[in-house]
Specification:
Length: about 325
């Protein structure tokens, strides 16, 4: 199983890309059993912990009607610096502005004395990362189904000038109907002026586009998400990320040298190999557009199931 560890740093000055931080983790006290949104006069009963990220803990909660939701909790003690506050406000502002069937719906945001809370659409089938661990890899029809939904969400984000910058299996959640929901906008950026380039080095080692690491003078833009989509496609089909090695520095070197291989396995379609090669092009301006990706033969000449059964979580579904 691969690691999906986040890196984020200031615009680069030195020549070496950042390594994931090894934060000493202090476990903050649990949020109250009954979480109260005073302004809206609403309350939520906290049920269980769904997961923990670098900055937040996410709980399953029930609203007054008994409807289940996810609630992302950030302790105020972790928001002491101006930078941390700015980052959280940016995440909220961007996530709130998005509404698409394949993006985790942002519902409300409120605070009490100790925490900031964000209520989100619940994704009870966990992430594609968990699913890949159980399945080892996916069949082509499943890959097409998942990728069409991911690319749809990404086209919507880009149309709304949002770059996600951390697309990876662990941030692609599954709702009750096994639909993809893109989540975690913690590294997302809004492009406010046409042609604007971003300079902050951020992402997750296996999925970072080469221009983020090595063309910091020029900066990066929407094409970094396209690159991650190529890495995701490879990972779903092959079962492990293309540039994966033990050491993060060695991953960066492989990304720089565009060094990845396809296993010698006749079950891997030539079409998908060709598409992956097109997407993982070092020059961002030469990568296919999201539209061109779904127009590729891998998609147009194969079946795209209309839905995935939830049994696909554990075993190969039968689409016949
Ligand atoms: P961070 O921004 O701190 O990385 P994430 O948004 O990635 O936090 O959430 C951390 C974990 O919480 C996820 O890996 C996942 O297990 C769980 N999680 C997050 N959002 C949801 C959701 N909407 N439904 C179900 N589980 C979720």
């Amino acid at each position: 199983p691969q690691k999906e560890e986040l890196v984020a740093d200031k615009p680069k000055r030195s020549n070496s890309p950042p390594l994931p931080r090894q934060n000493a983790k202090v476990t903050p006290p649990s949020p109250p059993k009954i979480i109260i949104d005073q302004q809206r006069n609403a309350q939520y009963v906290r049920i269980g912990l769904l997961g923990e990220g670098g900055f937040a803990r996410v709980y399953e909660v029930k609203d007054f009607r008994g409807a289940r939701q996810a609630c992302k909790v950030v302790t105020k003690s972790s928001l002491k610096t101006k930078k941390a506050k700015t980052k959280l406000y940016a995440e909220i502002k961007i996530h709130k502005s998005l509404s698409h069937p394949n993006i985790v719906l942002f519902k409300d945001c409120f605070e009490d004395e100790d925490n900031v809370y964000m209520t989100l659409e619940l994704c009870p089938n966990r992430s594609l990362m968990d699913m890949l661990r159980r399945r080892r890899r996916f069949t082509d029809p499943e890959v097409r189904f998942l990728m069409v939904q991911l690319i749809g969400a990404c086209r919507y984000m880009h149309t709304n000038q949002v770059i996600h910058r951390d697309l990876k299996l662990g941030n692609l959640f599954l709702d009750a109907g096994m639909n993809v929901k893109v989540g975690d906008f913690g590294l997302a950026a809004l492009i406010e002026n046409p042609g604007e380039r971003k300079k902050t080095i951020c992402g997750t080692p296996n999925y970072i586009a080469p221009e983020v690491l090595f063309d910091t003078a020029n900066g990066h833009s929407f094409e970094v998400d396209t690159w991650s989509i190529g890495v995701i496609l490879y990972t779903l089909v092959i079962g492990r990320p293309p540039f994966q090695t033990k050491e993060v520095k060695a991953i960066y070197k492989r990304i720089r040298d565009n060094e990845y291989e396809f296993p010698n396995d006749s079950s891997i379609s030539i079409h998908v190999q060709e598409l992956i090669q097109q997407i993982l092009t070092p020059d961002p301006s030469k990568r296919p557009t999201l539209h061109q990706i779904v127009d590729h033969q891998f998609f147009t000449e194969g079946t795209v199931p209309s839905r995935l059964p939830s049994t696909a979580h554990d075993s190969v579904p039968d689409f016949s």
